[in-house]
């Protein structure tokens, strides 16, 4: 993969992408700080969320920050809900019996009933909400759905990326093999989702994983948040994950490990250039 991206064969390349940008302000502020003051190189924006307008304003003021669109079909904050950007009557298969987006624990139900044409309608609404506001994204990925959750949703996303001139995050082997067969870049190694890390000793775990980044392209999906009072009320079970991510990403130790290990932090602009140049 290194040669496809223009790097030496022995280069250790790492995408550190801050997911969930736009969920609420404590996340937005932490994401920006993690990029401007820490080791995160990019972020992914959730267009349907309550903090999306604030997040897009931050991006307009900081055009140097690369970001993707975190395509969102689930809502994981019951205390501050969001819904689809398309009219609910136009995407009924994406809604539960109460007319709301499914929660992450009910993703199998969502995937069993979601119609592809309605998924496309909602994805297009989310992409348009971002691009119409001005910021220019680099890639598409998904919130709580690895590789879109279904092969047809992944293929749809790749088609949308082709239309809009973007790259796509591919995480699991079937999708990665599909993308590689088209001569396009994806990560070489296992994907890290910070919500899967234990809270106890997390900083030490991060430090070890950073030192162990292998040759080739790796990606970490991190979830920084400030963990303020409002954030604790919104996400009583998740704010600690975000706060501990933020603390490590902005730590002097993280920056020193990158320097001493010679690891290059990338963002999806490098992949986007290849995806567009090869005519996805």
UniProtKB/TrEMBL annotation:
Which co-factors does it depend on? Mg(2+)
Enzyme class, UniProt record, top EC level:
hydrolase
**Has UniProt tagged this entry with the keyword Hydrolase?**
yes
Iron-sulfur listed as a keyword: no
Q: Can you tell which superkingdom this protein's organism belongs to? A: Bacteria
Q: Name one Pfam family in it.
A: YdjC
Q: Which residues form a coiled coil?
A: none
- Give its E.C. classification number: 3.5.1.105
Please provide, alphabetically and separated by semicolons, the GO molecular function terms listed in this UniProt record: chitin disaccharide deacetylase activity
Q: Which UniProt keywords apply?
A: Carbohydrate metabolism, Hydrolase, Magnesium, Metal-binding
Q: What is this protein called?
A: Glycoside hydrolase/deacetylase ChbG (UPF0249 family)
| Provenance organism | Nonomuraea angiospora
